[in-house]
């Protein structure tokens, strides 16, 4: 399958006439807001993603201060902190398959309700940890719960918004997630890390009640009436065509997670290695990045709409991240303002909205939640391999080891984006597609 080929798609007129292959009714009839990028699913899903990213990235921001308060020595903070982060990401990897299968078998809405309950309880418990072991266990539980939010939320949104508005809807979804990370960074400047964990847990439980107003995806309901197996890992990974698409999608977000999960999470260490004399805070670096990424997501949506291609925009953004990473790791002896400015520039080429849309559009309705949810978290799990590689390569120097890892990550991302089919403008209402 080459980069110029296109998947089988349903003509957009089927949405207006109700003549989709799966026998589903008109999506406009199912959802009065189908012609808008801001329906109820988008708004509530966005609020969920806000809390999701707040909870998940709060650890990146509070790693140093929390582990210091738990009594770890400075040389232990990096190694133990990476282990705890890997526990969280591993939990997300396992949870992604559980919530994805649930989303395809019993519905996107029910999966989202279970997901937010688990990670809200986990965040509440996180406020009371007193040793690295319990810290790692709790972050695993949080990762398990958080895993369902991004994939199921993106799937539900994509299935309730028309094709031409899909990227904009997912951009709003992403911007809410970005705001969550920014809030996590800002909150640590206002209160203790334990209070931040409590706030995230309580907010999640409050949102759980709001989730009751969510409607189920009409595409899922139509798919459930068709005698086809849903949420099947055997069909997803046993079918050669599905497996190829799945594997090509995993590295797409690798560039984003390399930047946020490695470069910015290790910002204090990188700053010292590149000659920055002033102290650098992870929460500020991440907050500035994600604030700028709100503009980057809208830029990606606008470019894809203007040039009617998602794949080429993704290629350009991956290349931009690669160039910025090489610059970021040079010994430029920047001051704090210059360092944080580079963090903001990364955000202008945030890949999440554009690549999330690409992934959602690759798979049929009966597999979409499983494929999307697990794929996002498989991409996030690449951080585990990056972290382990960093610990192995660290003796050759922080900057050089991260450059080696980055070359591999960006090369894979560019190769896969080039070979994926273009899906701009396709509709999703055929359960057999």
Percent of residues in helices comes to over 70%
Question: What is the CATH superfamily?
Answer: MFS general substrate transporter like domains
Q: Shape from CA axes?
A: globular
Domain module count: 1
CATH class equals Mainly Alpha
Largest sheet: none
**Mean model confidence by pLDDT:** 81
Q: Name the structural class.
A: mainly alpha
What is the CA-CA span between the terminal residues?
16 Å
Our estimate of the beta-strand percent is under 5%
CATH architecture descriptor name: Up-down Bundle
**Total of DSSP H or I helical runs spanning 4+ residues:** 19
Description:
The protein has 433 residues and is an all-alpha fold. The protein is globular, with a radius of gyration of 21 Å. The two termini are 16 Å apart. Helix 4 runs antiparallel to helix 18 and helix 15 packs antiparallel against helix 16 (336-347). The relative contact order is 0.17. The chain has one domain: MFS general substrate transporter like domains (Growth Hormone, Chain: A, Up-down Bundle). 72% of the residues lie in helices and 0% in strands. The protein has helices spanning 13-17, 27-30, 40-69, 74-105, 108-126, 132-158, 166-187, 193-210, 218-224, 233-238, 240-249, 254-263, 267-273, 282-307, 311-328, 336-347, 352-360, 365-393, 398-419. Mean pLDDT is 81; it is low at 1-34. The chain has 19 helices and no strands.
Key attributes of the depicted protein:
globular, mainly alpha, 433 residues, Growth Hormone, Chain: A, single chain
